Amino acid sequence: MTRRSTVLDVLAGFVRELRAAGLPVSLTENLDALEAVRHVPLEDRDVFRTALAATMVKSAGHRPAFDTLFDIWFSVAPGLGAGEEDLTDDELTRLLERALQEGEDADLVALARGAVLRFSGIEAGRPMGPNYYLLRTLRALDVEGALERLLATPQDQGDVDIGAGEVSTGSLTALLRRDELARHEERLRHEVEAEIRRLLVAERGAASVTRTVRRPLPEDTEFMHASRDDLVALGKALQPLTRKLSTRLARKRRHRCRGPLDFRSTVRHSLSYGGVPAEPRFRHPRPAKPEIMVIADISGSVAAFARFTLQFVYAMSAQFSKVRAFVFIDGIDEVTQYFENVEDITEAVHRVNTEADVIWVDGHSDYGHAFETFWERWGREITSKTSVILLGDARNNYHASQAWVVSEIRKRARHVYWLNPEPRSYWDTGDSILSEYATHTDGAFECRNLKQLERFVEHLA
Length: 461
Known about the structure:
Elements: H1 3-20, H2 27-37, H3 45-56, H4 63-73, H5 89-102, H6 105-119, H7 130-141, H8 143-152, H9 169-204, H10 206-213, H11 228-255, H12 263-270, E1 291-297, H13 303-315, E2 322-328, E3 332-334, H14 345-355, H15 367-378, E4 386-391, H16 404-412, E5 415-420, H17 434-438, E6 444-446, H18 450-460
Helix pairs in contact: 1-4, 2-3, 4-10, 5-6, 5-8, 5-9, 6-7, 6-9, 7-9, 9-10, 11-13, 11-18
């Protein structure tokens, strides 16, 4: 069997895992990848990776998942260069500091291999995932300690005396140095992770290792169970998603209704057909953009859900005539002003979480009191053009629901929707009283991730 045919066999398993991870790799893209493999040198791993990515990856948000699976299914044979297994602790420490300071590829690779050999503790038959060995290796290597030592080392910064309020040359140099060290640390982490995967693939096989590292794509990540890294990935996925959706909504609103017959225009254009009205002309209406009020629970585990929904709605504010935002726990406050004239919506969301007056008594969710206060203060401002979106899990800590408020809102508003980040099977369990509210809405939607949020916004428009 030739090397190329072996690669094609591995490629088939790679495609299966990409699909299992959620990447939309169709038969056409699979055939494109097979054609690309015929024209690239297999020994050049970077070119091979780029060719496959160009044919299989449609979204930048999917690239990290692709790269992780590529490193597993097309890993190079593990092994150490000459002398790496003989590094002493002092030599390893010096190599660590040099690699972090200079960022040379050879040093980073040598350090990663030596550290994994010495500290990871990988043993045949031990059922631990790559993350366990990664954290164990980095902790034993004491990367944080090395960074602190390097940052504490005096540098020739060329300090100058400048006016108050300006950044000194020295402080700017220190900031740039910190950023450079952080980049080198990230590259080291990647090399350590790659070496661990190579060893595990050699021991267990690619399919087995894939099952231990498979993670949902950003658009499938659940808001309520997102880790810190997941939240970063979600934030990066928001901007391109909102751009795409805004374009789609504008086109949909433009063409979904052709309006009544325009008799005068039809007659005028019929002259070119000898007076026969062969092409009827219609008046294309200018559909009004909806006005949005978002009322969001920002307590506990639903805070991440509220954060990304607010970011999503405000990123698409051009599609709505007006957007107003209210947040609550057991008290409620309007936070619309935090989003006005800001370039970084993340900063606005941070202000919402730190400055909004949302505590009434004990800071535990009380939907009934929050809704009642909203109705008293802002209920009269709801009009027939307003669509109201209620965000939360409806877990009310056994307080009175005051569901009559939602009923009154529905009488005044154009539409009322409820978005819940919990699975439907959890609704109306424990202290959840969603049905008491949902009865008075135009619909309650499960909204656990960006993909479901995108579908709802399309429905809204």
